[in-house]
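A.,

Following up on our hallway conversation. Structure tokens first:
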């Protein structure tokens, strides 16, 4: 058996006051013909990163509307996760492909995990490239298969995508955040499904200004001075070094400003520690730069507090699959400055609900605009929050999945009927 993840319980009804009764009713209607369907989500890790965060809400909500839903995590050792981190970076454009030995490692672990996957699922959803070979290895274990891609495949390393494509092309359904991310050569149906955040999760629930300030104070920030903040993994694509450079430009004009770089270290990201240390080195001992991670007792509530208290939130990515930290910041009504890449422009109307930038200097200028004009920041924050409410909260995401399950099972061969017929003969 793969490793099951315990997700607790959630109630769809609790979201009605946020997203409206029409959407909740639509979800219940879509779920009705799917009652009892056996659904499994398969991912690489149960903590750190957006995939895990999404599933901790999505899986219990799927259960709440009547699906028999589980989340299972694959087995992998350091050699596997080193290879898949290389693969992840290559698929987002890094010129280094996996070596033949690393590809062999990836295939070997997929074969092992395929054996461990239990049979009899109505739908298996395979998240990202780490377990992507499962369909090709154990097609018979699920009636319908979905590959859910959470990364930016718009400019992949050609050798890497060419090697991966035979494993992903035949999934009956493949889901991507944006149309630009769909590689050529997919044979099944492709759906564009942006992800979403849980507005009731500890990371996103409403915090009073006093509570947010109290938490920030515990980590040594001066709560009476302006704060720039970026929340993300420590990874080159998130450009924390560029954020530090932008902060330094702002600090020349506004010496009181502080910077918080807050991130979580994930079990499938072995190079994260190297880049975390590189970020500390780049900060050069500046006492107004606070670099924190989940090993400093920074959990969901603390991230919420940093985002809620910040005067401007950044996500200065140079590549970004979608950017759930952007969604989180916007949901808290904070003025936002982010990279004009990946899924960030989907969430931000430049100049209206945030600012999109492509270099350090422009990032610094936009931060200065916001820090010097609190009324501008509030107006931008209000518009950003409403955009997220309409488009990027979990109930909408659940609805999209239910639609796709319905289509997939209608088109899929009735595996259970076939099995029953085989047993009868």
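Then the amino acids I'd put at each of the 425 positions:
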């Amino acid at each position: 058996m793969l490793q099951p993840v315990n997700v607790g319980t959630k109630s769809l009804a609790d979201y009605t006051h946020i997203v409206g009764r029409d959407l909740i009713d639509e979800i219940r209607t879509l779920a009705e013909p799917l009652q009892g369907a056996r659904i499994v989500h398969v991912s690489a890790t149960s903590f750190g990163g957006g995939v895990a965060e999404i599933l901790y809400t999505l899986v219990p909500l799927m259960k709440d509307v009547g699906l028999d839903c589980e989340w299972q995590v694959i087995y992998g050792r350091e050699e596997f996760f080193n290879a898949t981190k290389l693969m992840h970076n290559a698929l987002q454009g890094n010129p280094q492909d996996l070596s033949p030995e690393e590809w062999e490692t990836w295939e070997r672990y997929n074969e092992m995990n395929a054996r461990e996957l239990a049979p009899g699922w109505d739908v298996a959803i395979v998240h990202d490239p780490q377990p992507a070979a499962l369909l090709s290895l154990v097609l018979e274990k699920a009636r319908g298969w979905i590959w859910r891609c959470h990364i930016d495949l718009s400019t992949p390393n050609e050798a890497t995508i060419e090697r991966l494509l035979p494993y992903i092309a035949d999934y009956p359904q493949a889901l991507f955040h944006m149309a630009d991310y769909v590689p050529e050569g997919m044979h099944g149906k492709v759906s564009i499904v942006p992800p979403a955040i849980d507005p009731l999760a500890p990371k996103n629930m409403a915090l009073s200004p006093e509570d947010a300030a109290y938490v920030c104070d515990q980590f040594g920030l001066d709560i009476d001075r302006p704060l720039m903040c970026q929340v993300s993994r420590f990874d080159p694509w998130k450009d924390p070094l560029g954020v530090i450079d932008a902060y330094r430009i702002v600090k020349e004009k506004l010496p009181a400003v502080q910077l918080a770089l807050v991130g979580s270290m994930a079990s499938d990201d072995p190079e994260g520690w190297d880049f975390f240390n590189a970020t500390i080195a780049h900060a050069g001992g500046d006492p107004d730069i606070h670099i924190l991670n989940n090993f400093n007792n920074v959990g969901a509530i603390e991230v919420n507090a940093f985002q809620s208290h910040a005067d401007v939130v950044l996500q200065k990515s140079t590549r970004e699959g979608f950017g759930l930290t952007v969604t989180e910041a916007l949901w808290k009504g904070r003025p936002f400055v982010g990279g004009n890449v990946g899924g960030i422009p989907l969430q931000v109307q430049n100049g209206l609900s945030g600012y999109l930038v492509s270099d350090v200097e422009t990032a610094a200028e936009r931060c200065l605009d916001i820090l010097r004009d609190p009324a501008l920041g509030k107006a931008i924050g209000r518009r950003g929050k409403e955009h997220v409410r309409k488009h990027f909260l979990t109930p909408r995401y659940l609805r999209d999945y239910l639609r796709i399950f319905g289509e997939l099972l209608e088109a899929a061969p009735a595996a259970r009927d076939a099995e029953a017929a085989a047993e009868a003969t």
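The first helix runs from residue 16 to 19. Curious whether your intuition agrees with the design.

B.
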